[in-house]
Amino acid sequence: MVRESALRFGAQTDEVTSLLRIVNMVRTGEATTRPEIGRLTGLGRGVVTQRVEAAIAMGFLEDGAFGPSSGGRAPRTLGFRSDRGLIVVCALGALHIHVGLASLDGVIIAQDHRAWEIVRGPAETLEATIAMVEKLLATTDGRPVWAVTVGVPGPVDFESGTVVAPPIMPGWNGFDVRRRFEQHFQAPVWVDNDVNILALAERVHRRDDAIDLIYLKVGTGIGAGLLSHGHLHRGANGAAGDIGHVRVGDSEVICRCGKIGCLEAEAGGWALVRDAERAIGDGAVGVLKTHHDAGEQLTPELICVSARDGDALAIALVQRSARLVGESIAALVNMFNPSVIVIGGAMAGAGEIYLAGVRQRVYELSLPLATRDLVIQPSNNDVAEPLLGGAELAIEQLFDVTFPRWFASGVPTIERVRAA
C-alpha cells in the first residue's frame, strides 16, 4: 500500500508514479487488462499485479469480465470506479440556472433547470442554486460529492474563483463564488467563465484531446473559449477570449461595461434588441413589428426566428452582427490558427444566415494558410452542453492536475487539492 507521506505536498516515488499512471490508463480506456498495462508501461508482470491490486484496494479500480484470449488464459478486464463519487455542475446564465450531477466518468445522471435573473445578485442566486443541487442529491444513493464546478457569464479569476467586473452581473464583482460552494459541499470547487466550459463540452463531443478550437458564444453578450492542443487557454488572469469588448472601428456606442464601441454593444443580442426597437419606432414593418405590436418582448431568439421567417429587419440585424463578429474573430484566426470555430449562443439560432456572414468575413480577412483547413460550424445546441463541459472541467482538474496531491488518501479534499 502507498504510504500517505509519499504524496505529501506532491512528492512522488517511482511506485506512486506508476500507480497513478495505471489508474489513469484504465480510467481513460488506454488499457483495460493487466497484460495491456504491462506492454504499455514496460513494467514486469509481478509489478503490474502489485500496482493493480493496490489500486483496487484503494477503491480506484475494480475487476470486470474476462476479455478475449490471445492464445492463453483470457485476461480479466479492469474498470475505473466512476461510481465512487459525484460531480456537481452548476451553469449560471443571465436568465437561467442549470444544475446537474455527473459520475466520475462525466456521465450526467440527473439535472434540473429554472428561469432566473442573475441580476438578483450572488447571495440569492447561489442560495437558489444550492437548493436545486440538494434536491437532486436527495434522489441519489448517497454517494459523496467529490468536486463542484460553476460556470458564470462573466470574467473569472480562475485561481481564486472570484468574478471580476462582470458587465451583466451587478453586485458580483469580487465575489468569492468558490468559497460559498466549498463551505456548503466540503469539496473542491472550480469556477470558470461559461464559454470556457462550453469549449470543453466540444472537446468531449469530438473526442479529440489535442484539438485547436474556438468556441464563440454570441448571445446576450459575446465571448470566446480557446482550446490550444486540447487545453484551455485562459491567459494570465483568466481574461483570454473576451472578444466582446474589443473595439469596433468608428463606433461611438456606449457598452454595458462602460467603454465605448465594444463589439458586444454593436453585435450582441442586447444590442440587436435595442436596434430592432429603434427601427420599429422609426416605422419599420414586418414580422418583428407584428410581434412587437402584439405585446411580445423582443429577444435575440425572436430576432433569429424572424430572420429565418424572412423578416427584412431581422435579417439585416443578424447579417450586420455576423459581419462584425466575423471581422473581430478573423484577428483571432490569424493569431491562434484554430482548426474549428464553433458558434453557439442565441444568435446561432439564425442558422446559415448568421454562419454565412461570419464565414465570409473570416475568410476575407484571415490569412490563406490560417483558413486552409478551417471549419466554421454551429454548436450541437444541446441543453446539456454546460453540464458536460462542467463535468469535464472537474475531471481534468481532479485527475490531470491535482491527482498526485490527493491520490494516497483516496478521496479529494479541499486542502489537498489546493496544496502548492
TrEMBL record:
<dbReference type="InterPro" id="IPR043129">
    <property type="entry name" value="ATPase_NBD"/>
</dbReference>
<comment type="similarity">
    <text>Belongs to the ROK (NagC/XylR) family.</text>
</comment>
<protein>
    <submittedName>
        <fullName>ROK family protein</fullName>
    </submittedName>
</protein>
<dbReference type="InterPro" id="IPR049874">
    <property type="entry name" value="ROK_cs"/>
</dbReference>
<dbReference type="Pfam" id="PF00480">
    <property type="entry name" value="ROK"/>
</dbReference>
<dbReference type="InterPro" id="IPR000600">
    <property type="entry name" value="ROK"/>
</dbReference>
<dbReference type="InterPro" id="IPR036388">
    <property type="entry name" value="WH-like_DNA-bd_sf"/>
</dbReference>
<dbReference type="InterPro" id="IPR036390">
    <property type="entry name" value="WH_DNA-bd_sf"/>
</dbReference>
